[in-house]
Amino acid sequence: METNTKQGQDFFEVIKERRSVRHYDPTVRISEQELKDIVTEATLAPSGANLQPWKFIVFNDQAVQEKLLPIANNQRQVVDASAVIAVLGDLESYSYSEKIYAAAVEAGYMTEEIKNTIVANINGVLSQIDSNDLKNSVLIDCGLVSMQLMLVAKARGYDTVPMAGYDTVKFKAEFGISERYVPVMLIAIGKAAQAGHPTVRLPIDDVLFWNGNL
C-alpha cells in the first residue's frame, strides 16, 4: 500500500510541475537510447482501434536542428534543446492492422478468428470513412501520445514545450514528408536554463458541466 501511495504522489507531482519551457541549456545532451525509451513509453497511450497512427522524427543533430530553426520561426528552443521531436499523424495507419492484431494473437490476447474479424472491420470502415473524419481521429490520437510524451519526459527529469508555430508546408518539403503524414506538433525536450513560468487555470466550475447541461 505504501508503494502505491508513493507512486500516486509521484504522478501528481509530475503533472503539477510540468511547464512549457522555452529556454534550454544547450550543453545538455540526451542519449539516443533514452530518447527512444521516452518515445516507447509515450506510445503506451491509447488510440482508436489501437492503430497507433503516429510517427516520430527526432532531431538531435545540431546541423539538422539549425535547418529546422527558420521553419520554426527562429524559436531558439529548436537549437538549444537537446532534441526536437516531430509528431506526425499517419493517415494510413490501418495498413498496420494485420501486424498489430497478429501480435495480439501471438501474445495470447485474442484468437485468430477474432483477429480476422477485427482486421476486416477496420479495413472496411476506414476504406469508406470521410477524409476529414479520418484526419480528426488521427489528430486526437496524436494529441494523446504527445501529452504522454511530455509527461514521460518530466517524470525522467526533462522539460518540454509543444510547438505549433512552424511552417508545416516548408517542414514537409525540407524533410521529404509525403501526404500520407500530417504534421501535428514539434516538441522540444531538454533541461531548462530558465524555468517555465507558472500559469493559471479557469475555475473548474467554468469548464465542468454535468449531464449535458452546458
UniProtKB/TrEMBL annotation:
Stated family: Belongs to the nitroreductase family.
Signal peptide, first to last residue: none
Tree of life domain: Bacteria
Annotated Nitroreductase domain residues: 15-191
SUPFAM superfamilies: FMN-dependent nitroreductase-like (SSF55469)
Keyword terms: Oxidoreductase
Pfam families named among the record's database cross-references: Nitroreductase (PF00881)
Name this polypeptide is given: NAD(P)H nitroreductase YdgI
